[in-house]
Amino acid sequence: MKIQVKKLNALKKYTGGFEFEYEPPADLCLVPLCGFEGSVRVTGNYEIYDDDSVGIDYTVKYRIKGQCSYCLNEAFKDIEQSFEVLFVPEDDADNYSYDGVTIDLTTAVNDAILFSQPNLILCRDDCAGIDVNNKIKEE
Ligand SMILES: [Zn+2]
Predict the structure, then answer these.
(1) Which of 3, 7, 42, 63 has the fewest beta carbons closer than 10 A?
(2) Residue span of the structural domain in which 53 resides
(3) Residue 85: Cβ-neighbour burial (10 angstroms; 0-12, 13-18, 19+)
């Protein structure tokens, strides 16, 4: 997931779009009993400014699949969230940095996947969990 800033600058393509399919590392999924299903779709736009900083807005879209956090039935959740970041040519505590030539989006995309993740997934919105009372009645 790279943006060739120097090359785009030379071509005077100061703004544009991008699209990547990304296979996330499995340990990036922090939802208990779940994992990523398929790849993460990353789409976005960049704008290169006069001082070589680059504004990037991007959207990550992916599916988490596994077991419902309440009742352990099969469950999945589609997630889509947008972020806006700035890449700067020097180290800067507030922004992502790059070498002035090429931006590698991997860290920013991994961060977006972490920030957009739910704490748990449910098989349905009103899942009440394993119903202990019902179980007792059945017996
Ligand atoms: Zn459930």
Answers:
(1) 7
(2) 2-138
(3) middle
